[in-house]
Amino acid sequence: MTESTGETPAEIAVRTVWQRRRPDAVARIEILEEATAALIEGRLDDELRRAGEEAAHKLSGSLGSFGYPRGSELAFLAEAILGGDAEVQKEDALKLAEWIDEMWTEIEHPPGTSDATVKPAEPELVDTGKASPDVVVVEDDSILAELLLHGLRNAGYQPEWIDDGGKAVEALTGADARLFPKVLLLDVDLPAVSGIGVLRAMAETGALERTRVIMLTAHASEEETVKTFELGAFDHVAKPFSLPVLLQRLRRALED
């Protein structure tokens, strides 16, 4: 617990990162709102629909981790409506509009009180010239990555961030690997190479012999979970996650 506020390091991380990145979350809700307005007016094109789907996907994976579980649930439902190839119905717009209103209401309540003495952590893309970190975070959502990096640093770890599956394969596997973390927090849904593809590359090159992998995913199916364990993942955590619980899972990976 901290002396100044009585908060745990994880609670401070959640609050301070939210203070910094709330405008980015707001921008995602606004994209979802724009797609909904276009649907109501009969002008929803494929580009805006996909933008709304992507915004909903990232909101579903992050809002709950900042203490807004209903927002994550509603974003997940919105993603289901906007995703896929089926035509979106106008009646779905009424549901979307109601859900967006709920999101706005929920995020009006901050996850904690402000503390000017705590400096938000800037997310920092991996610098392969540095000493190998304790933990590498592979996550394309910069808001969620910043929460993880801040929480890890507050807990005493030395983390690095990679935002792309292809970059992760290059940095973590093969004879030219330059990062050798003890634990890898690996998102499933990544650009270039999926998290499962990264995990497979690590298994094939022997990188899993030195690194424990905890998979992170917003849409964990039984098939996907089984596949990751078959490939050698140590653990599987669903988004949105509780930062204290995730840190406990990480500690278990380090101690086991």
Quick recap:
With 256 residues, the protein is α/β, with parallel strands linked by helices. The protein is built from nine helices and five strands; from the N terminus they run H-H-H-H-E-H-E-H-E-H-E-H-E-H.
Provide structural commentary:
There is one protein chain. This protein has 256 residues and is an alpha/beta fold. It has 2 domains: 9-107, no CATH class; 135-255, Rossmann fold. It contains 9 helices and 5 strands; from the N terminus they run ααααβαβαβαβαβα. α7 (195-205) links the parallel β3 and β4. α6 (165-172) runs parallel beside α7. The protein is globular and about 55 Å long. The protein starts with 8 loop residues before the first helix and ends with a helix.
Number of strands: 5
The CATH superfamily of the largest domain turns out to be: Response regulator
Number of discrete domains: 2
Low-confidence sequence ranges: 112-130
Mind summarizing the main beta sheet? 5 strands, parallel
Please state roughly what percent of the residues sit in beta strands, choosing from under 5%, 5-15%, 15-25%, 25-35%, 35-45% or over 45%: 5-15%
Order of helices and strands: HHHHEHEHEHEHEH
Q: Count the helices. How many?
A: 9
**What is the overall shape?**
globular
The helix-and-strand class reads alpha/beta
Distance between the termini: 26 Å
Radius of gyration: 19 Å
CATH class category name of the largest domain: Alpha Beta
Helical content band = 40-55%
Please name the CATH topology of the largest domain: Rossmann fold
CATH architecture of the largest domain: 3-Layer(aba) Sandwich
